[in-house]
Specification:
Largest sheet: 5 strands, mixed
Radius of gyration: 24 Å
CATH class of the largest domain: Mainly Alpha
Distance between the termini: 53 Å
Structural class: alpha+beta
CATH superfamily of the largest domain: Alpha-helical ferredoxin
Strand content: 5-15%
Helix content: 40-55%
Number of domains: 3
Shape: globular
Order of helices and strands: EEHEEHEEEHHHHHHHHHHHHH
Number of strands: 7
Number of helices: 15
CATH topology of the largest domain: Fumarate Reductase Iron-sulfur Protein, Chain B, domain 2
CATH architecture of the largest domain: Orthogonal Bundle
Length: about 325
């Protein structure tokens, strides 16, 4: 079958433009094979990264039909089935673009420098006092080693980084790839710096509290590392160690759970007072809420009462059961 490949081409610091190529391909042909054919048969100037062709190295990360993926993993048939709506007399189309949140070097090749710098920022290496003991092995039980399996599958392809909404608006956020690696260090039985790490990952919106919990990183990860889940586990470790007075981010989570336990859903009247106003302790924080409160009152959008949801007792029981298990 014939397929149109629309590729977003660009040189550094220049405006991007679409170029279209037509290929006769089979449904099982991978996107990477198609790119190879375009380069070898039609346009030798097309630039993209590749290496293993077996979903191991992560080199061929790019945006295929609007979401980040590995070109060696996705094939023409599945792409057309999921994303193409062909009109009569028209050829099916597949759109390919470079990864997001990273500057373009040329065509589908992006500059990964910032990606690696942010990984380095979480110190993704085991730090242990055992290193001072010559010839001592770092022995782990099968259970301890199994805790590293999921995060150890990360191939640093950049798909999660490319889709991260938090990075799009907050360039200081360290990124889902780095925090997934950070979680690997936190649960590694050989590491002796867990408390120091958690303090580091707890810093403002640069660390775990910068995550917007959009789940896009989980959706595009080709290795099922589930970065957002790993970020959630780090948050829980921090929450277990801190009280509501530590920071607004921690207070936000604790107040949310507390209010849901009380009424089955969030009492919005109290939520801002507890989080921003620090349970009426922060006068300056309370004053910042006043303009919003007056505008809501004037427009009739301020809830004057709160009605607990049905099944509040069941909701409370579920939350307490999960907390007890954790």
């Amino acid at each position: 079958m014939q397929v149109l490949f629309k590729i977003l081409r660009q040189k550094s610091h220049q405006s991007p433009h679409l170029e279209t190529y037509t290929l006769d391909v089979e449904a099982g042909t991978t996107i990477l094979e198609c790119l190879n054919r375009i380069k070898w048969e039609q346009d030798g100037t097309l630039a993209f990264r590749k290496n293993c062709r077996n979903t191991i190295c992560g080199s061929c990360g790019m945006r295929i039909n609007g979401r980040s993926a590995l070109a060696c993993k996705e094939n023409v048939g599945s792409e057309l089935q999921q994303f193409s709506q062909v009109k009569n007399g028209e050829l099916p189309e597949i759109t390919i673009a470079p990864l997001g949140n990273l500057p373009v070097v040329k065509d589908l090749v992006v500059d990964m420098s910032k990606f690696w710098q942010k990984l380095e920022a979480v110190d993704p290496y085991v730090s242990t006092k055992s290193r001072s003991i010559p010839e001592r092995e770092f022995v782990q039980t099968p259970e301890e080693r199994s805790r590293l399996d999921q995060t150890g599958n990360c191939i640093m392809c950049g798909a999660c980084y490319s889709e991260c909404n938090a990075l799009a608006v907050n360039r200081d956020f360290v990124g889902p790839h780095a925090l997934a690696k950070a979680q690997r260090m936190v649960v590694d039985s050989r590491d002796t710096e867990v408390e120091t790490r958690l303090e580091q990952y707890n810093q403002g919106t640069e660390g775990v509290w910068g995550c917007t919990r959009c789940y896009l990183c989980n959706a595009v990860c080709p290795m099922e590392v589930a970065p957002m889940d790993q970020i959630g586990q780090i948050k829980q470790q921090i929450l277990d160690r801190k009280d509501a007075q530590t920071s607004r981010a921690i207070r936000h989570r604790k107040a949310l759970v507390e209010l849901v336990k009380q009424g089955g859903w969030v009492d919005e009247r109290k939520f801002g007072l507890f989080v921003v106003g620090n349970y009426f302790r922060d006068l300056q924080g309370l004053l910042t809420l006043a303009p919003l409160g007056f505008r809501m009152l004037a427009s009739g959008k301020f809830p004057l009462s709160f009605e607990p949801s049905e099944g509040t007792e069941q909701v409370r029981s579920l939350i307490e059961s999960v907390q007890a298990k954790e």
